[in-house]
Amino acid sequence: MELTERNLKQISKTECFDTSFIKKEIDSGRATILKNKKRKINPVIVGEKFKCKYNLNLGISPVKSGISEELKKLDIAISNGADTVMDLSVGKSCEETRQRLLKSSSIPFGTVPVYTMINDEEDIKKLSKNLILDTIEKQCEEGVDFMTIHSGLLRKSIPYIKKRLTGVVSRGGSLILRYMIENNRENPFYEYFDDIINVLKKYDVVISIGDGLRPGSIYDATDKAQISELKTIGELNSYSRKHGVHTMIEGPGHIPINQIKRNVDLAKKYTSNAPLYFLGPLITDIAMGYDHINGAIGGAVAGYLGVSLICAVGPSEHIGLPTIDDIRLECVTFNLVKHSVNIAKGFKDEIDRDNKLSSFRKKFKWNEQIKLSIDPEYASKRFCELNNSKGDYCSMCGNSFCAIKNTGKALEKV
Ligand code: SF4
How confident is the model at residue 85 (pLDDT cuts 50, 70, 90)? Predict the structure, then answer.
């Protein structure tokens, strides 16, 4: 991995660690840098000791959205604080969508290359070594910074999948499973793993080892299918690191709160503390329309326990492709998640923001409070809507019952 002094200084400035500590974490495999050597972006570090971050998913489906809408979503994601984005486009226009989004992205950009290899059901039969390696190399050449490769789903897990309530819910995982069963073959991303690693290495592209068997319901959480895949992912992580390719480990999925710690601990154990990248997790199956809150609760717990990168979940999860408004809400929600995790991790700049806002709250400095809040535009709108004066109380308790005011008056006398 090419890491210049300038890159290290950039990371040092945003993460508040000295460069020797950053180097040590990277060399140990506990941290990963997201930046293709062909891209001119600020590198982003992902690791347990560093600030918690979130990824936002974009991309067209064969039935919804278009390139211009996805470009707008990308702008919203970047201007609202997303740390990384992934293009999950599928269907005929996926190549052009990826290329346009990548060109416009000033933050690390990830893909799932199998989506480009399989454009329709007929393509499932056509997966070949050449197609896999050529597609991955093409995306590396274009500048993609990290790629999800579902290489841990093996034939030995198939009997466990049959016992599940919700089977395979990973889109990439389900395509690979169909290829494996219909062709009576092993997972090709596992079979050609060393060739894939050799391609990624040339470009400093990070492999995000995908969890094709992440549970899609709390019933399936932490089951034999998931854990058998995790053990394989652990072996592939060691292999990648030994061959000079940085890794992230993708994680579940639908996990009840009481199982999040076990999942984080198992992932750390099998991958020697590689950076973890979890989807949420979602702590219940029933939050349709509110899955951003569902994912935020799981993400905050997982982040506190050591997950480094959280894949944001939006309110349209399990329902349909997100709209532009959904993306905005998703960003605000996961800004709150990462901020809350970073307070718990003790990052002084993040704690200072809360302390400053609270001191303005005590002095009834409304505009200053709003500026420091998680979504100033919304906070300002609500403040005006709720019949507030800009005085020394608000419409919640009113003048006589304002606790801050009454405390101030009381303390004046002691
Ligand atoms: S009126 Fe109540 S809610 Fe409003 S500022 Fe005073 S204590 Fe806080």
Answer: very high
C-alpha span between 302 and 393 (Å, rounded): 37
Ligand 1 neighbours by CB, cut-off 6 Å:
393-394, 396-397, 402-404
Report which protein residue has its CA nearest ligand 1's atom 5.
393
Digit-coded pLDDT (tens) for 366-401: 999 999 999 999 999 999 999 777 789 999 999 999
pLDDT above 90 covers a percentage of the chain that reads: 93
Domains of the chain: 32-346 (3.20.20.540), 349-412 (no CATH)
SS3 120: coil
E runs forming strands in 68-215: 84-87, 109-111, 146-149, 206-209
Tokens 């660690």, located at residue: 17
How far apart are the CA of 361 and the centre of ligand 1, in A? 9
Instruction: Give the mutation target among 382, 387, 396 for probing the ligand 1 site: most ligand atoms within 8 A of CB.
Output: 396
- pLDDT tens, position by position, 294-350: 999 999 999 999 999 999 999 999 999 999 999 999 999 999 999 999 999 999 999
